[in-house]
Amino acid sequence: MSPEEIAVRAGQQMPYLHLPVRAEVFANRETRLRELAAGHAMRDFLLFAAELAHVQHEVLQDYPQAALPSEDDLAAAGRAARPPLPAALWPRDPAWRVATRRMLELLVPRLAGSPAQAVVQGLLDGDDSHLEGQAELLLNGAAGLDMSAAPLVAAGLQVYWTHLVLEVDRLHGKARQAPFGRTLDTTLCPCCGSLPVASITKVDAQGGNYRYLHCSLCSTQWHMVRVKCSHCESTKGIHYHSLEAVATDGAKQDANMASVQAETCDECGHYLKMVRMERELHVEPVADDLASLTLDILVSEAGFQPHGINLLLLTGEGDPSAEDSVPATDRST
Question: What is the pLDDT of residues 41-85, one digit of tens each?
């Protein structure tokens, strides 16, 4: 057993969920993206993602009022062990469009001189039906998604769902029946039912080191023991892969100590990246996933399919019949 499993069996208390922090989630992401962009082959894209995280943070601090699930809705979701804010089914409040447009307005001047500015302005100039249509395609994995605008739509949806989770917790988090908890499908977010972007090993004050999956949409983190496939939950045939880093003096660094690894499963042929806080304190799942695209390519070439999804880097055409009904994320292209 892993140290994590031993602790669980011994009855050691650990939180099942880590909800995002309003003042930190996108601010930390921006900081990490800027740090990773220095000298990176994807520098321009990482800096664009950093600007996006900056305006996401700004909008989240003063989000417009949006409809939330009722106490009866939360209780029903709890009894059925399902996410109370399912991304594909939740009726989106018009407030998400208002907030997304504000986010785009803040972003336009920050992209002066960038070709991305025209894409942002084009989405901003579009009508509400276009924005809603793109959101529906993105959340349900249907064909026809505008891939150039997809990261912008995704960013707006991320802020919206993060706000929903935080507001539900603020209003109902102290109730005897917690609004969020364990669900039947532990491979998906217990708050919104979305795929993870990656997993993260978190170090706590007691020296514990536990693995959490990080939601690609609402940034909630939920516990899953290590050495267990995040797709099929098998504990057999689990392997870890990482890139061999080269220091500035040309010396090779131990790949086994890499802060980003790909956890592959021979049983189902899927993988999910893991970012390790005990090796790099400031890792951030979305940022470090974007900055390690080369690892995705190599693992995909070895025949493994991603279990996770990064909504800021979608490629290919959405396929409504695809497994898990999520947008295509063929990172081998």
Answer: 999 999 999 999 999 999 999 999 999 999 999 999 999 999 999
Handedness of CA 56, 62, 67, 72 (dihedral sign): positive
Q: Any idea what the Cα angle at residue 209 is, between residues 12 and 293, rounded to 5°?
A: 145
Name the token pair of 204.
């706590």
Report residue 174's pLDDT band, with 50, 70 and 90 as the boundaries.
confident
Q: At what angle do helices 116-125 and 95-107 cross, to 10 degrees?
A: 150
pLDDT in tens, 204-251: 655 567 899 999 999 999 999 888 999 999 999 999 999 876 554 555
Pairing, β 221-223 against β 209-215: antiparallel
Question: What does R_g of the chain's alpha carbons equal in angstroms?
Answer: 19
10 Å CB burial of residue 232 (0-12, 13-18, 19+) is: middle
Percent helix, strand, coil in the chain, to 5, is: 40, 15, 45
Going by the DSSP 8-state scheme, the letter that residue 219 receives in this structure is -
Of 192, 193, 196, 195, the closest CA to residue 213 belongs to 196
Give the 3-state secondary structure of residue 209.
strand
Contact (Cβ atoms closer than 8 angstroms) between residue 258 and residue 280: no
The partner residues of 222 in beta bridges, in order of sequence, read 17, 213
